[in-house]
Automatic annotation (TrEMBL):
<keyword id="KW-0479">Metal-binding</keyword>
<dbReference type="Pfam" id="PF03055">
    <property type="entry name" value="RPE65"/>
</dbReference>
<protein>
    <submittedName>
        <fullName>Uncharacterized protein</fullName>
    </submittedName>
</protein>
<keyword id="KW-0223">Dioxygenase</keyword>
<feature type="binding site">
    <location>
        <position position="314"/>
    </location>
    <ligand>
        <name>Fe cation</name>
    </ligand>
</feature>
<dbReference type="GO" id="GO:0009570">
    <property type="term" value="C:chloroplast stroma"/>
</dbReference>
<comment type="similarity">
    <text>Belongs to the carotenoid oxygenase family.</text>
</comment>
<dbReference type="GO" id="GO:0046872">
    <property type="term" value="F:metal ion binding"/>
</dbReference>
<dbReference type="InterPro" id="IPR004294">
    <property type="entry name" value="Carotenoid_Oase"/>
</dbReference>
<feature type="binding site">
    <location>
        <position position="251"/>
    </location>
    <ligand>
        <name>Fe cation</name>
    </ligand>
</feature>
<feature type="binding site">
    <location>
        <position position="497"/>
    </location>
    <ligand>
        <name>Fe cation</name>
    </ligand>
</feature>
<feature type="binding site">
    <location>
        <position position="202"/>
    </location>
    <ligand>
        <name>Fe cation</name>
    </ligand>
</feature>
<dbReference type="GO" id="GO:0010436">
    <property type="term" value="F:carotenoid dioxygenase activity"/>
</dbReference>
<keyword id="KW-0408">Iron</keyword>
<dbReference type="GO" id="GO:0016121">
    <property type="term" value="P:carotene catabolic process"/>
</dbReference>
<keyword id="KW-0560">Oxidoreductase</keyword>
Length: 509
């Protein structure tokens, strides 16, 4: 039945695009643009040896702290729109592919690219045609197996997480959909995911307690629901937020020791829209910041305050000041200055990093830009999550995609009149595109090591020759020097987020 319905819907879609709405497609949804060049999808690649490695230091070996696996995701649709068809395709509409390099004993061993085998992927594989839109936008280690063990998940805000596993031979397999043993809301069938149930692609793990804090947004009331997952991997009670009056795209949020912080942006969803896309920008709406206690039983204590111009896309980190009493919350976020362009072109959206200071008692918010550069995909040393950090590493957003990386020193914001916190940067070179970096500490188990004493890792693709590399940069150097590069056995297209997993953790998941 699903295949019959998909065929009918696709035929109807083609008829509408060809005869009822023959206007040219915008570049952001025209497959000739959104499926070409750096964005062109690739096929799956089983575990393949990495043979070309250039290491500038360490006697030809990669740093020992990089023993483990680096995994980065991307949209990568499994079906390319054929020539002559006008069906739109947006970068966010892909199926979800994971690209992974494994390192052991200082040597890059294997690389593989595998689809996340979602329900959507399986159905479309049988029908040999795309009929749903979805995306896997993040990868994370979350509690899920009991006994405090962490499991590896591919995450999407329009579906449940999918548990994945790295095999002994360096392959990636999808174990299936996971609902964290849902025991809330009188769900009598705890092992079966709820219909239309979804979860953010950016949950936050409290490293002190082992808990995970997450949420979901919906097109019907309640538009926002917050929940947590205990250290044993069990989902707890839903907290419905009734003060959100419409469906807003809330892609990310911030979590501190005592609070969760949300931004009600101008990006809204109107599921009843017929003549226009259901996702759009409400220019008359004033963005708001909402603060709620991390362990709130309901939303009665949640408060909102208007913050004109704040359309947060990603949260980098957040913490509390004033002696930990919760009087002040500081968050570092990426903000889309031209939010109407966010789904058209990341280069036109003018994303920048800002420091947001929230007075919890006065219910006021102060915004401070951290750089004049267009930046997103900011990361920190993971050991500083939810506590005050000094350094941020972010992707430089060029006209088409990510063309470099910067390091910011947040201590410079304490100096009056200081306009830019960038203290180091590196361009990948003409025609080269990267993605979100990931920080790996040289000594992750040493609490006295300096915050920036480590490496930045990322995948970089050269459009000129179609080659991709795994690059390792010195996070302390003034120019973020590349100290090692591994040529990969295939090209890697545009992607979103990544994670590095140590060899020790890899053996546990």
């Amino acid at each position: 039945k699903h295949l019959e319905y998909s065929t009918i819907l696709n035929k109807l879609d083609d008829f509408i695009s060809t005869f009822l709405d023959p206007s040219p497609l915008r570049p952001s949804i025209d497959p000739e643009h959104s499926m070409s060049g750096y964005f062109a999808p690739v096929e799956e690649l089983p575990p393949t040896a990495c043979t070309e490695v250039a290491v500038e230091v360490g006697g030809g070996l990669l740093p020992s702290c990089l023993d483990g696996a680096y995994i980065r995701n991307g949209p990568n649709p499994q079906f390319v729109v054929t020539e002559g068809r006008r069906r739109p395709y947006h970068l966010f509409d892909g199926d979800g592919m994971l690209h992974m390099i494994e390192i052991s004993g200082g040597k890059a061993t294997t690389f593989c690219s595998r689809y996340v085998k979602t329900h959507k992927h399986t159905v479309e594989l049988r029908s040999a045609e795309q009929w749903l839109r979805s995306r896997q936008t993040s990868v994370a280690l979350l509690p899920g197996g009991g006994g405090g063990a962490a499991n590896l998940f591919a995450l999407s805000e329009c579906d449940l997480p999918y548990e994945i596993k790295v095999t002994e031979n360096g392959d990636i397999v999808t174990l299936g959909r996971h609902d964290f043993h849902n025991n809330s809301n009188n769900n009598n069938n705890n092992n079966r995911p709820l219909l239309f149930f979804n979860m953010t692609a950016h949950p936050k793990v409290d490293v002190k307690t082992g808990e995970t804090f997450a949420y979901r947004y919906n097109i019907t009331r309640p538009f926002l629901t917050i929940f947590r997952i205990d250290p044993e991997g069990r989902k707890q009670k839903d907290v419905h937020v009734h003060s959100l009056k419409g469906c807003t795209i809330i892609h990310d949020f911030s979590v501190t020791e005592n609070f969760c912080v949300f931004v009600d942006t101008q990006i809204v969803v109107n599921p009843l829209s017929v003549l226009r896309p259901p996702v759009g920008v409400d220019r008359a709406k004033v963005p708001r910041v909402g603060v709620i206690g991390k362990y709130a039983e309901d939303d009665s204590g949640m408060w909102w305050t208007e913050v004109p111009g704040l359309n947060m896309f990603h949260s980098v980190n957040a913490w509390e000041e004033d002696g930990g009493g919760g009087g002040t919350i500081v968050a570092v976020v990426s903000n889309a200055l031209r939010v109407e362009e966010l789904f058209e072109s990341i280069g036109l959206a003018q994303l920048r990093l800002e420091k947001i200071t929230i007075d919890v008692n006065a219910h006021t918010v102060h915004r401070q830009p951290l750089s004049t550069k267009f930046l997103d995909f900011g990361v920190i040393n993971p050991a500083y999550a939810a506590r005050k950090n000094r350094y941020v590493y972010a992707a430089m957003i060029g006209p088409k995609s990510v063309d470099g990386i910067v390091k910011l020193d947040l201590s410079l914001t304490q100096k009056d009149g200081h306009g830019d916190c960038v203290v180091a940067s590196r361009l990948y070179g003409p025609g080269c595109c990267g993605g979100e970096p990931f920080f790996v500490s040289k000594e992750p188990n040493n609490p006295s090591v300096e915050e920036d004493d480590g490496y930045l890792v990322a995948f970089v693709t050269d459009e000129n020759n179609g080659e991709s590399k795994f690059v390792v940069m010195d996070a302390k150097s003034a120019t973020l020097d590349i100290i090692a590069a591994v040529k990969l056995p295939c090209r890697i297209p545009c992607g979103f987020h990544g994670i590095f997993i140590t060899e020790g953790d890899l053996n546990k998941v």
